[in-house]
Amino acid sequence: MAYFSRSGNTRVVAGLIHRTLHTDLFEIRPATAYPEDYLETVEQARQERDSGRERPLETRVSNMSDYDTVFLGFPIWGETAPPVIRAFLSAHDLAGKALTPFITHGGYGTGNSLAVLASHAPKARLIPGFVMEADQERRTMNQVNDWLNGIKINS
């Protein structure tokens, strides 16, 4: 199983799958981390998405040929799979493998992420996956900003 998670939602799902099915676990990491700041990450991911640029990976799965099924977890960014997921798919031969996604999103669904999986792993068998709304980071940020915008502070 391979997953990418920024805020931890997808990591939680990956951990549950890992413990239940006794899978190997591989965290997909970009060679250069995304910014800590949520809005900076959103902007950088938008630029990568719009340019079609694939973010280099920190490392690859060295023994991908050992697996018949690949669970692939990721959050939806900008109505699609994060650029690092496209890079992961391009870097690994998934021909003949069952590709089973598990996706977290902030309320807008999977966007075109399934089309991304199909186009970047065309010889894999795409298995219906798990999709869950899990948007605590943006909701938290919006709630705090709303609160801060509504309070009066004498400076």
TrEMBL record:
Alphabetic keyword roster: Flavoprotein, FMN
The keyword Flavoprotein appears for this protein: yes
InterPro entries: Flavodoxin/NO_synth, Flavoprotein-like_sf
A GO term for molecular function: FMN binding
Keyword Ubl conjugation carried by entry: no
Ranges for domain Flavodoxin-like: 1-152
Protein's UniProt name: Flavodoxin
